[in-house]
Each structure stands twice: as structure tokens, then as C-alpha cells.
Amino acid sequence: MNKAGTILLLLALTIGGLVSGYYFFQQPIQHEIATRSADTAFGSHKLNILVLGYQNDEANSDTVLLTHLDIDRRTATLMSIPRDTWVAIPGHGHEKLNAAIGYGGPKLSAEIVSSLVGVPIDSTVAMQPSGAKELVDAMGGLNVNVEHDMDYDDNNGDLHIHLKKGLQHLNGGQVLGYIRFRHDIESDWGRVRRQQQVLKNIMDQMSDPKHWTRVPRLLELARKDMKTNLNNEQLAALVEIYRGVPDDNIRTITMPGRGATVGDASVVLIDRHWAKIFGRLLFTKDEPPQDEVLVANATGVTDWNKTVVAALRGGGWNVQTFVDQPAKAQSRILGTTAAGHMLAIIFPTVQHIAAKKTALVLGLDLAPQKE
Predict the structure, then answer these.
(1) Are residues 249 and 295 both part of a single domain?
(2) Tell me: the pLDDT tens digits for 212-231?
(3) Distance from first CA to last CA of the chain, Å, rounded?
């Protein structure tokens, strides 16, 4: 249901890059030069960046995206973390993840997310939803395929959403309502998915040269609505590297978890076991072995192999194909290859079986938590 974009270097990251990199669009630099610049700026070709959509007046974050950028491969993998994830906030007890930004800004949000996945976060980007609204209006609107009728009014929050099903051209206010809507059976999970969809649509439209004349207006919006600890050199280099990246180089996944109630609050309890696995598969700076890995889904959870494969490929693993199998009680790792031994380290409780080829068979014991 997503319209594939030709680039997806995050809405906020791209707009930030326009601030510092406008002249790169006027006189493009060579990709090799940008790569060397990124190496100098970051000291690494693999980066973990936390992107937050926040409400300044409400002191919370609507969107939480942990992004892994592999500069050498020009890939980007975005993992959405539900904003209602129940976490420990230092000095404030347990609250929803979206409250962290109000207590300690993007830095505290990054510390908590880093603890969840067990890996360091290099940089943060925070952008208010109003920035997405003004951006879409500055672009002349956005084509969005609305999956069903949406009707919701919140007079206290000044939020009014009235959209009809189907492909249509939306203005900024309508797009903002679309990505904030959560009053259907999918609740927060649907909002996460729609945010990913709109990001792809925006990047697709912004990659069209006919929209580059709008850059001066986008620069003005970026200065007002974005906060980041990335410097100008880093932003400009990243924008140049990811401009025109193939669709297949962009992946989106969602942190698995289940809905629950704590007191009167509806929260999400994330699957902490898989959070740490994703950290080791996707967000590590180490280069994995390049032996080919087959992934087999025997968890009984439809499409779970696609999520795991997206994490593996985003981390640089060589996964050419994946299959579904009947449910199995126990997971298994096959292979005496370097990749097989590394997977055995990442999944220490899984049986490791000698074999010439490498396979990761996901059984019921590794099925993600669901409601």
C-alpha cells in the first residue's frame, strides 16, 4: 500500500540537509567526495540516528524512528518504536516513551532507546509535526492512498480528521491528520505504518527535480522546525550520498510488542528479547560475515521472516532468499560457516547444527510477542 520512493533519507534529515547543502543541489559533488567527507565527519560508515517527531506544547514525541545508515551500501533501515512503549525514565519512574523528550529533550530519548536495543546512538534529529504540515503545503500537496474513511474530532487538541478512502491529493493539514490518526483497530501500530508510508511519499515527490525550485521555502521551514546535533558537513554529505538511492535500499520495520494496560493507561510492552536481537543484527557497527544465509519462518506468525530479513539485510548480512515452513517448536541455526558461528553468538539459546550451508530457522520459541 506504500508508494515506493526513490529516496528515503528521512524527512527531517533531508530537510536539514537542504539547509546546509542547498548549493550541493545546484552544483552536485561527486559521491566519492561525499563519502570521504562523511568518513571525516563521522569516523564511521555505519550510523545510528534517532528521529523524533515531537509536540513542543505537549512535551511529548509522536514519532520515534531509530535509523541505521550504511553509507558504503547506501542503505537505510528505519525501525519504528511505538510512542506508547512503557519504559523506565531516569528520575521519573515508568512512563510512556513519548514523555522522555519533555523531561530531558532528544538526548534523554536517545539514552532510553539506546538501552532498549543495547547499542549506541550517534545522532538525533527532532522535528515538530507542524513542520511536516508546512513542508507538504510548500511542496504543493502530497498524493496519498488513504486506506479507509477517517473521521475524528478533538476540540481540546484542535485535531479534526475527515478523510475518504482512496488515492487523493492532500494538503498539509490533511496529511498531518492522516499520520496522527489512531482511532481504528490498528491504534498506534497503524499510525506508525502510516508515518512510514507518508515519509516514502514525501521523499518520492522531493526527489523530482521540478520541486527543487521550492528549496528556498523549504530552507526557511527547516530552520524553524528542526533540532539536531548533526553539523552542516554531516547533513550535506548524507543528503548527497542518499539522493537518488534505489527503492530496494530502503527498509522499514516495527519493533515487536503487545498492547497492555497499566492503571488507566494503554501502553505497549515491547518484546525486549527481540529488541536486543535487532540491536545485534542491525545496529552494530561491525561488518557481518558474507556467507549466504537462508531465513525460514516457522513461528506461525505471518510475514515475520520479512521483518527479520529486513534487519539482517540492513545490517549488511547476505540474505538472498527466505521461506515459510510449518510451525516448529524450537529454532535452529545451521552452518559451520563464519555466518553460522556469528548467528550462534547472536542467538545463544538456539541449537546450532553443523551443515555446509547457513540457515536461520525461526521457531515458536522466537515468535514475537503479540496482543
Answers:
(1) no
(2) 666 556 656 655 667 788 87
(3) 24
